[in-house]
Structure formats: C-alpha cells, structure tokens
Amino acid sequence: MARRHPGLSERHRKILEFLTRFQDSYGYSPSIRQIGDSINVKSTSLIDYYLNQLQNMGYIDRTDRISRSIRVLQPVTSAGSIPGKVAEVIRGAGSALADMVSIPLAGRIVASEPIPMPVSDLNYYDAESSVDIARSFLPAKDINDLFALEVSGDSMIDAMVNDGDIVIMKKAASANNGEMVAVWLDDKDETTLKYFYKESDRIRLQPANPNMAPIYVQNPKSLRIMGKVVLVIRQIRSYAA
C-alpha cells in the first residue's frame, strides 16, 4: 500500500545521514556508488533520483556534471526530524511536494530483447525501496495498485523510455492494442517491456526502436501481462561517478 510522506522518507534520511558523516570525515562528498553502497542499493539511477528529490526539497545542493559536488544544506540530526528552514521550503513548494505518495519499487524490467531471468529479479529491492511522486501526476483512482520498475535496455527509446528510467505501472491482467505493458513469457522465463498488439492468431510485442524487430508470441496463454505503464520518470544523466 502506498504511504504518504509529507517530508523525508526513511531512504532520504539515510542518504542525508551518510552524506553528512562522509563530508565531516573527508571534507568532500561521496560518489554516487558510495552512496548506493551505504544503503545497499546498486542502481546509480535510483540514487540519482533520490538526490534530485533532496535537492528539490532544499536539503542539498548539486553541481550537474561534476563528480562529488554535493553540499548538504540542512543536515538531519535525528530520525524523522525536519529542520525548520527545510520545513518552510517544503511548505512553500505547494501541493506538488506537500501531497506525495510513495510507490513501491518492485525491481527491474527489460526493455530490449527479452533475456532469461529468475522471478526474483522483479523483486530485488528491499522493502524500503520506493519512489515519491506528487499525487497530481498519478491516476486519480487505484493508487494502491501502482508499482514502479527500473528500465533496463533501449528498445523503447522512441517512446521516451531510456535505459535507467523508472516506469510507474498499474497492475493489470489484460491490455488493449497500443498500450505499453510489462509482460512475462512463461514458456521462456523471460520478461520485457513493449507495446501490446493482439493479432488474429498471435500476440505482437512491438518495440519503439527502429533497429529492433517485433517479438511474436504464437501461444497467447504463455504470455502474462503484469501491468500497464501510466507514467515515465526520466533520469537526468550526469558524469558523477
């Protein structure tokens, strides 16, 4: 069930605490990978996403394209505490920040040629992993049926879905032609993110990349739809290591 976060989530707080300790010890900020290692998250794009949120809320400052450029503006002194100045920033940011929902990050979805992977790969993040999104960006109904997946691959680049982006999915067991869906191919133990098309005698999974061919599923019963894409969160690329 999605949980509302009026300010810092537990993941945000842990990142801030690590940034503060590291800078106090070494006099400069850690790398993206070091931040990820400190909270047991391997995805650098997910760490970048959390850092962008912290910057938008006024907790840190970053210089794009420069490694180790993070400055902590408002350290977190205890679990759950929000310094007064930061609270003012959050209140002044309007309802977009004041009314956030936390969408569970379920794992990774392949957006390329489907590759074999164990079922557990769709649930490799820990229970705390989530992305916080303004309620106004999400469907008005069924927020509790939403989950997030990190995209791996470039088969959907013409649909503005790039490697490392995060897609917000709505749980679904069926789809209409032209909808972007996450599917599981039972007979191959493979998963992929594609446009869905039901043809007369087969299912066509269409990439949004002119260099990639469609995937045809001859036995519709071997395909399971896990969800439909309702929102794409683009990741800002930087040279931070």
Describe the structure.
- The protein has 241 residues and is α+β, with helices and mostly antiparallel strands.
- The chain has 2 domains: 3-98, Arc Repressor Mutant, subunit A, CATH 1.10.10; 100-233, Ribbon (Umud Fragment, subunit A), CATH 2.10.109.10.
- It has helices at residues 10-26, 32-38, 44-56, 84-92, 95-98; strands at 3-4, 60-61, 71-72, 100-110, 115-116, 130-134, 146-152, 166-171, 180-185, 190-198, 203-206, 215-217, 223-233.
- The strands form 2 sheets. Strands 1, 4, 5, 6, 7, 8, 9, 10, 11, 12 and 13 form an 11-stranded mixed β-sheet that branches.
- Strand 11 and strand 12 form a beta hairpin.
- It starts with a strand and ends in an 8-residue tail after the last strand.
- Mean pLDDT is 76; it is low at 1-6 and 78-98.
Beta-strand portion reads: 25-35%
Report the biggest beta sheet as strand number plus sense, adding barrel if it closes.
11 strands, mixed
CATH class call of the largest domain:
Mainly Beta
Radius of gyration based on Cα positions? 19 Å
Number of helices: 5
Q: What do we call the CATH topology of the largest domain?
A: Umud Fragment, subunit A
Structural class: alpha+beta
Distance between the termini: 34 Å
Let me know the average pLDDT. 76
Shape: elongated
- The SSE string, one letter per element, is EHHHEEHHEEEEEEEEEE
Low-confidence stretches: 1-6, 78-98
